[in-house]
Amino acid sequence: MKAFINEIKENDNIDSLFLVKEKYSGMTKTGNAYLKLKLADRSGEMEGRIWTSVEVFAESFEKDDFVHVIGKSVSFQEHLQLNINHIERVDEEKILYSDFFPTSEKNREEMFQSLVEISREIKNPHLNQLLQLFWEDPAFIERFKMAPASKWLHHNYLGGLLEHTLSLVQLVLKNATHYNGINLDLLLTASILHDVGKVDELSYHRSFDYSDEGRLIGHIILGIERVEDKIRQLPDFPKDLSTLLKHLLLSHHGQYIWGSPKKPMTLEAVMLHYFDDMDAKINGIQQFIKQRLPDGSRWSPYHRAFEQFFYIPNRSKKMELSENIDKNEFEEE
Amino acid sequence: MKAFINEIKENDNIDSLFLVKEKYSGMTKTGNAYLKLKLADRSGEMEGRIWTSVEVFAESFEKDDFVHVIGKSVSFQEHLQLNINHIERVDEEKILYSDFFPTSEKNREEMFQSLVEISREIKNPHLNQLLQLFWEDPAFIERFKMAPASKWLHHNYLGGLLEHTLSLVQLVLKNATHYNGINLDLLLTASILHDVGKVDELSYHRSFDYSDEGRLIGHIILGIERVEDKIRQLPDFPKDLSTLLKHLLLSHHGQYIWGSPKKPMTLEAVMLHYFDDMDAKINGIQQFIKQRLPDGSRWSPYHRAFEQFFYIPNRSKKMELSENIDKNEFEEE
Amino acid sequence: MKAFINEIKENDNIDSLFLVKEKYSGMTKTGNAYLKLKLADRSGEMEGRIWTSVEVFAESFEKDDFVHVIGKSVSFQEHLQLNINHIERVDEEKILYSDFFPTSEKNREEMFQSLVEISREIKNPHLNQLLQLFWEDPAFIERFKMAPASKWLHHNYLGGLLEHTLSLVQLVLKNATHYNGINLDLLLTASILHDVGKVDELSYHRSFDYSDEGRLIGHIILGIERVEDKIRQLPDFPKDLSTLLKHLLLSHHGQYIWGSPKKPMTLEAVMLHYFDDMDAKINGIQQFIKQRLPDGSRWSPYHRAFEQFFYIPNRSKKMELSENIDKNEFEEE
Amino acid sequence: MKAFINEIKENDNIDSLFLVKEKYSGMTKTGNAYLKLKLADRSGEMEGRIWTSVEVFAESFEKDDFVHVIGKSVSFQEHLQLNINHIERVDEEKILYSDFFPTSEKNREEMFQSLVEISREIKNPHLNQLLQLFWEDPAFIERFKMAPASKWLHHNYLGGLLEHTLSLVQLVLKNATHYNGINLDLLLTASILHDVGKVDELSYHRSFDYSDEGRLIGHIILGIERVEDKIRQLPDFPKDLSTLLKHLLLSHHGQYIWGSPKKPMTLEAVMLHYFDDMDAKINGIQQFIKQRLPDGSRWSPYHRAFEQFFYIPNRSKKMELSENIDKNEFEEE
Amino acid sequence: MKAFINEIKENDNIDSLFLVKEKYSGMTKTGNAYLKLKLADRSGEMEGRIWTSVEVFAESFEKDDFVHVIGKSVSFQEHLQLNINHIERVDEEKILYSDFFPTSEKNREEMFQSLVEISREIKNPHLNQLLQLFWEDPAFIERFKMAPASKWLHHNYLGGLLEHTLSLVQLVLKNATHYNGINLDLLLTASILHDVGKVDELSYHRSFDYSDEGRLIGHIILGIERVEDKIRQLPDFPKDLSTLLKHLLLSHHGQYIWGSPKKPMTLEAVMLHYFDDMDAKINGIQQFIKQRLPDGSRWSPYHRAFEQFFYIPNRSKKMELSENIDKNEFEEE
Amino acid sequence: MKAFINEIKENDNIDSLFLVKEKYSGMTKTGNAYLKLKLADRSGEMEGRIWTSVEVFAESFEKDDFVHVIGKSVSFQEHLQLNINHIERVDEEKILYSDFFPTSEKNREEMFQSLVEISREIKNPHLNQLLQLFWEDPAFIERFKMAPASKWLHHNYLGGLLEHTLSLVQLVLKNATHYNGINLDLLLTASILHDVGKVDELSYHRSFDYSDEGRLIGHIILGIERVEDKIRQLPDFPKDLSTLLKHLLLSHHGQYIWGSPKKPMTLEAVMLHYFDDMDAKINGIQQFIKQRLPDGSRWSPYHRAFEQFFYIPNRSKKMELSENIDKNEFEEE
Predict the structure, then answer these.
(1) Is F179 on the interface with A (CB under 8 A)?
(2) Does B88 touch chain C if contact means CB atoms closer than 8 Å?
(3) What ipTM did this prediction achieve?
(4) CA–CA distance from C190 to each of C251, C252, C258, E120 (Å)?
(5) What residues in F contact C309, CB-CB < 8 Å?
(6) Which of A38, A237, B208, C76 could form a disulfide linkage to A21, CB 3.0–4.6 angstroms apart?
(7) How far, in Å, CA of E82 to CA of A68, rounded?
(8) CA-only gyration radius of chain E, Å
(9) Eight-class DSSP state of D316
(10) E269 vs F281: CA distance, rounded Å
(11) What is the pLDDT of residues B129-154, one digit of tens each?
(12) In whole angstroms, what is the distance from residue A70 CA to residue A48 CA?
């Protein structure tokens, strides 16, 4: 069973998997070689030292490997560190990614099935076929289920891209009939595909960061390319429909300054932008509060990207002044 | 029955009501006095002339009066004008505002009843009572049902404020359970009240314009004052709840630059801003296209406030390329 | 007599009042309980330790209390700390706020009386009465005399709000006749009241910070509400005058981007904005230089809010090159 | 005596001076040559025609000349025009500029003497001498007394630069002792000299426009050059003082975006900027209202440079509700 | 031979080709049908009327056709119009586009050959092959030689895209060795391809305007797609090289606000942006001056997109003051 | 020979020159005086201690002196420090500035001669003479050869101003004939002089920083003054030419927001701005990468002034996939 770093106490015997984030060779004053490691899992980081069989162990794993570690935690200069007796490389297939990275609280398989089912309801045959092509692409699906939606701003966890996409699609379904004249098939398809370029933009198998082409090209254009690749397999796909779909993807950031080379020019593009932006922002605020709210405070720290503070009202107590209030009213649903 | 100006043809005998927008005295070359009027209704404007009994008629009405006119349309220098035989002032109660100003296509009384019913579902007793006080204020209700939501940007017609408010409330109802932790009662109440200051900001009994206090104070603060007036009648209204409610009203424009003195700092405030902004923008685009789309064009003129063009896809024809497409797919729902 | 923290030396015997900013329980290696405190006054902060009667003392005061302390300063790891023999809570009425917080160098009572006298000269009876209502409100007066004008940007000390208000009023008096067409009564009244919302926006009894309603509503709207509360007691107060007065308060920040929901639209509003902005900025620069100028430097550090450096000319020496210069010329007046 | 164009009526016999703004040769259908002129004075423009002695008159004056005209006003196609019997060029020295261009309502000679007297009070000998050099430069003085302060934004009339400069100096005198640490001599000198570059930036002998070097270099740098020219004649002028003085001139627009290559970095520079900006803005608003306020309106048209409307309260009537108000209270002083 | 509209005089007999920009049917007061046309060529527009054989002619051509017209110019209400005796549709292949639209002054075929030759010098085989694929695409070449570079801002004439591309490539060649570390092959290739999307973005066979996909997708992304289409035919094309090339195309506008979804992140991308921007701006200024400089003025009108005026120095006269100046010095080379 | 700080190892005997950046007196626990120094050269900083003859040595040099030091490096608390046996002040003439400050890699004398030669080719006699006056001013030349072009943004090393100026001039020479209508003499002269004010703006004899007049006036205006000083010695220098030259200097930053009080209004001014901006940016990126690129990374850290990351492609390996590629293709030239 996984021993999580933030739960390890002094003198615990440890037998668990970790990710090696750093690996250095050292020499004690008495001239003995040792290895100094930085081990990590989703709960934190911890130093590890190997004092014995150093040469053998040094050959057997590298930085960025997952490893099986047997050892004991000891206190050194007011910090815990792990004295390692045995270490060996573990194949990636044998680990649980969610032990090592923050992960969506929702079931990724269920979320994915929901998306697939919704996409089957799309009546326009071209858009329907286009989406099927994505669902028949196992390499895409694997990445699509795993990718976060952003390095840190919102849905910054494994499965975050999928969670954000499904949330957006559900918002679209709830609101699509609110206004006349909306092409629901187009809007749904664009919602499902709006961020597919993020599977290429972000790397997330060791830490969340941007790939080279992510930084140089960006998920908007990378997404357009993935969509183009599929459309090319559909010779009857109407040119106008392709142009409209690509316009929705290109313009979904809403403004030049936010990286969209076009502003939303159709009603569907306008709606897509609002729902995408709102969903990202609300999740971003929720994550920020969850991770950064000071104890006992109702005020978040300053959020640099949003350039403001956020406030968390005390719902259960302060507002309830009379007998006949439903006690659950202010609780989270 | 109302004769609408844009339907009057040469030599029509006219017996109908109009609004006097301008009134000048003139003198013919032969030294006879006459009156020159600009008459208006919701369909346009037309010149009128009074050649007989000028002195008597001149006393009987003023600029900005509604008048009953009997006369005949004649052609003069390539324009139609109305030769008036009889004219008299008509009391405002006897006219139908919707004959004279653009008016919401939806039933204002029904929209208002929907709002009242929704507000009865609010469980928090303080917020529920607050809304009831508004519904018990007939002077407010009369203005609230009549006011446009803006001079020209969106919902710029009689009943527009009510239509926008109801649309926003329905969006909130559709989406409120989408995110955890939203105080629905607070969000609904703020949605209903967010623009009540517009009943004071705009004047709309002769043309749509800003009132003096509208320009000097603005609907956000005028709305806060109306809410404060009601809260003062509810001595048990919790201070915290009042602060939160006012924060939602103050911040609903989302940015300083759009006139909000505070940015949205709670989840409810963030949601209110997005839905309000989207609803105004979509209606604004729809009105702009309806009124300004050039014949045969898919491109709107340049929209100065939004700084862009808008595109109206040809849904029924261009995209349908294969037999098995549902023909109604791209039609407006 | 107050022993100020920045004047305490090693081995001083201390018998003085302090503010408890932090309070923690600890345990020595030998298993004895002790208390670790952070003590503060206006001159700085200092650590304190209680080694005896720990349980009794621990019950007798809390964080944020003012306390009477008897003890001795000792050196520990290159820092002074206070070994406390006796400590007890002191009622807030018995302390001098100016011992604990930075305080205006001017006499607050005299400044307040100057304001009251100036307000008596206002001829417009409505505005005169309005101000009298503020002067008859002891709860307001107490806060108004104590509040700083800002958390840190300018007049950031007890009495700062009063000092800034009086300075602004004096500027208005000096300049009001400079331009034709200025309504002096209106401008004076607005100057006196322009920042009254700050008594609610800021909390300053333990440290300078924003209150919840300060952050959620802001001093501009909170000030409008205080003015409205008083005007409601004056049934004959003209609506137009109230609108103009509120416009001056709302627009005194001058720009949307600085938090004013309206730009100044009357000559009085324009003047109020310029004088308020100048007075805040000059005091802000003076405070910044006073607190942050590096030794021997004529250049201030970078001021983040103003986005620039400031320069302090060497007035007495460098410029004086010839005999006949009045030696006092460049001295501060 | 000057016959002003806006007072000329049909069939008046005219014998007066005008400025020739345009001059064209024409040919009647019957083959006779004539001259068509646009004549102007400060009150407006009017067409003139010369039907006789055309060749002689055509040689005797040019566009942009001042001319003495004898003729008669006649009505032609609903406009008045002047049938000219005699016309001849008049030397510029013989005309009154104020007949032809808008002119300050204040006495230019008196304003100039006030400035000279104030400058004599400056105790710093270098600054005092510097100003004297300006007052001993008759070519400068002539332009300084005549120049407007801007083409159209504020003080846009002959003598406007002088009026603005004196107003600024008086504001400085009224306020200089308000803050400690202000070098009054420096601030006064900079106030007097801050806009001297405008005598070169603007051309104003035929119409108000920018000179080539005005547009290419700008009054800020042109003013620096004029000041440098004088300082070069004062070999003992301290370098530091010169740097500070130039800094005040360079930074008086306050922001890069307003054309200052440096922001104000000393207290004197900050004050100069605020008073200069306020004086320009208030005069700009007053001129705008004077020239552009629609009849019967309290609202100015939209001011493009300031991006807003302005409001002119009805002081004498609306606000006076009770007996004991001093009737002069709201009148302009 | 082409009769250009701006050279047609009253009573000229016309036998020439024109473009029909508008076509309306009318009815004279006496009940006879006629056709009213707007005819155009590169020199201007002119009205035409057909009074005879109206029904026959009406069937024989449409708006936006090129037509052969025989008729006579007559004067009507102070304007010339063409009384048409004979009109017939002409196939597009038979007309000279440069008769109808502004055209580059440079030889388009020669410019194209220069580009092709330069592209042959590229040593990197992948980039060399990529460019060859473009040169083997006749449909592309035809459009590439014809397209303007913009609707109106710069190189706004037939062949403008080609002229701008060649100019940019020559700038790159002149400067590429100026800095170390520049990949010249990559930079040249990107320069040649940077605006190829404009062949799809703009429509220019009847007037210069944006195509639907031009407005909805934009030339940057359309260019990326054209490049992708070719790269797909080169299976060995390295992924990294493709990413870098696309980055240069995507970022060549330099800033988000100018429509680039990425800022230039490599030295080549930075250089491409500067040269492209400079070339567009200088041509834009030159075109603006050529078309809009007022007679006798050295100052251009205000340029709205660049937000400034431009100045054209008088090189031959004003600056030459001494004998020994080379007289050709200030002439245009 | 110079011992560079970043090459000193434990127990090295040191006999070399250093710059004293800090100098403090201390007292050991046993009551002995010592001196604690911070020594510096271009490679880094190091602590030094003087334990003997403290009083004598203390008198013999000051902070900011260059000193000759004899001593030994020892390890103290994991850092190296220098135990100094002998120290004495060294005259500035005896040191090599390039040992102490980062210095251009190019030969400063050769660069300067290149500039002088280019300036001799200028045909316009006024501009030619103006430049000669600069080359005849030894005080200017000394500073011009030494000054960096900026404190840190680009060419931030001794000789950087000269290197940047020559680079700009070479760019101008390469491109000046590319466009018609460019006055090459004017553009070259302005390129040579565009940043001469930096010899006064920056101080660089002990560290790179701004001088007082650099911050208060800025290099643009300081440069104008230096040019004015020289032009005053040339009585025949044409006024128009002077205005144009000064316009190029004033506007070379291109935008108000970048500190230019005028935008470039002539073709020469536009070109100067583009080449200056590009040269500064490319050098800035190169320096940033050279100093700050993390080991093994292709991505630079975030550049705060440019607000982005930069990417360094791996030219030699990744792109080369086929045999026939010239292996030197992607190497730096």
Answers:
(1) no
(2) no
(3) 0.87
(4) 11, 9, 19, 76
(5) 215
(6) A38
(7) 93
(8) 24
(9) T
(10) 12
(11) 999 999 999 999 999 999 999 988 99
(12) 11
